[in-house]
Design brief:
alpha/beta; 37% helix
Length: 273
């Protein structure tokens, strides 16, 4: 399945915007620290590729004179422009094979939860074209190994999630999802000056209904739903989660759970000469 088509769905765009977990500010702080170790000029321009509805793009705003977020999905860009408007951010429809910047004009290129969809050979060539000497590339995201360890009923919650993610949705994932499962272990940056950081995590408190909303943003769920339109799969999962708390589905908007997602971060620096 083409990722252009995969994320063109308006329902997916809405679910991304509403339910996908935000990255902690520590991720951007780590990226900026790495960038400024050897790149001391004022930070003029960053480009966030595969920006979706702008969650990761907005985090870059305080550090750069201008930030460009680009995505292949018109619906995602529309949602991004409708959300919080920051004066130094511009959103454009664009893809990984033609980045919207002049040669040697960009300080930082980022891709959050997106690079596994790219043609990496072409993307890396484009990144190298637009980065300034000493500029950086940052690929990051969060893994699918969701954990509920902070909940007293963690075992039951984990069982419900695993049955849905690894059972119901098995066979409905696009093949490149394996890179998320492996925390980008098989993705390597084009620069020798590169590091990996697995020290961070996203910690979220969801209501049961909002976490099921997150599950509704998964691409595999939409493929499953397309082939099984008669099934109310999300309602079934919601009921299982609330039963794990000893409650019924009516309490889903008020019952909370703590969820942890592991973050992976790859950082690379273009040589100065």
């Amino acid at each position: 399945m083409s990722y252009t088509k995969l994320f063109a769905n308006t329902v997916i765009s809405e679910a991304y915007h509403k339910f996908r977990p935000p990255y902690p500010i520590e991720v951007v702080d780590r990226i900026i620290k790495y960038l400024q170790e050897k790149h001391l000029s004022p930070l003029a321009l960053a480009i966030d590729v595969g920006c979706g509805s702008g969650q990761s793009t907005r985090n870059l705003s305080p550090h750069f004179e201008k930030v460009i977020g680009c995505d292949v999905s018109e619906t995602q860009i529309k949602k991004a422009t409708e959300t919080e408007k920051l004066a130094n951010i511009e959103y454009r429809i664009g893809n990984d094979e033609a980045l919207p910047a002049e040669d040697g004009s960009v300080d930082l290129v980022t891709a959050a939860q997106a690079a596994h969809w790219f043609n990496l050979k072409t993307f890396y060539s484009e990144v190298d074209r637009i980065l300034k000497p000493g500029g950086c590339l940052a690929l990051y995201g969060y893994g699918s190994a969701v954990e509920f360890h902070q909940n007293s009923n963690a075992g039951e919650l984990q069982k419900v999630f695993d049955e849905f993610y690894y059972g119901t949705l098995k066979g409905y994932w696009e093949g490149r999802r394996k890179h998320i499962e492996d925390l980008y272990a098989d993705i390597h940056l084009p620069y020798s000056d590169a590091v990996r950081d697995h020290s961070m995590a996203i910690e979220m408190e969801y209501t049961v209904s909002d976490f099921v909303g997150y599950l509704s943003s998964l691409s595999a769920f939409h493929e499953y739903k397309r082939l099984h339109p008669e099934e109310d799969t999300l309602q079934t999962v919601l009921e299982k989660f609330t039963r794990a708390f000893g409650k019924d589905a009516k309490s889903a908007d008020h019952t909370t759970m703590n969820v942890s997602y592991p973050i992976f971060l790859l950082l690379g620096r273009k040589p100065n000469s």
